[in-house]
Design goal:
Layout (H helix, E strand, L loop, with lengths): L8 H14 L8 H13 L9 H16 L1 H10 L11 H16 L5 H15 L4 H17 L5
Length: 152
């Protein structure tokens, strides 16, 4: 029997995306600003929408892991952009790609296809009309490189 208060992994990713999207707007990205942003974000959610248990652990791990690896993740993204740089990317697209690449590199229980699909689905909700196809293309190339051990 499922627990009605448990948030799905998809919803947990959505929460992680929201927090990762906020990184640039909190000035210096560090553990303290992340903790403050997370508390503020959770305060704005209805009780039943807040992640709990494993989902809350995933949100914290994904946001902290992404924050800790921003330079690495952005370098990976830059390597797979054509005629673009990370600085020019739509902030939604950047946050979604950071989260998906973090998952590909660090969340061994998440298949690469799932990380890509989740990013594309979130892009449909939050990105521009071009975001899903753009994100899918970049992340598919990243996934191939990760599989071939060409990305650390």
């Amino acid at each position: 029997m499922s627990n009605p208060t448990r948030v799905s992994r998809h919803q947990a990713r959505r929460h992680a995306f929201h927090l990762i999207f906020q990184f640039p707007y909190h000035g210096e990205c560090n553990a303290q600003t992340l903790a403050t942003a997370t508390a503020s974000y959770y305060d704005g959610l209805e009780e039943g929408d807040r992640p709990r248990g494993r989902d809350a652990t995933y949100v914290l791990r994904a946001t902290t892991g992404t924050l800790d690896r921003l330079v690495q993740l952005d370098a990976v993204i830059n390597n797979f952009l054509q005629d673009w740089t990370v600085e020019r990317l739509n902030r939604v697209d950047l946050a979604l790609m950071r989260l998906a690449i973090y998952e590909m590199l660090c969340e061994k229980d998440v298949p690469h296809g799932v990380a890509i699909n989740e990013a594309v689905e979130l892009a449909k909700d939050y990105g521009s009309d071009e975001s899903p196809a753009f994100i899918n293309g970049v992340l598919a190339n990243v996934a191939r490189a990760v599989k071939d051990d060409q990305v650390e």
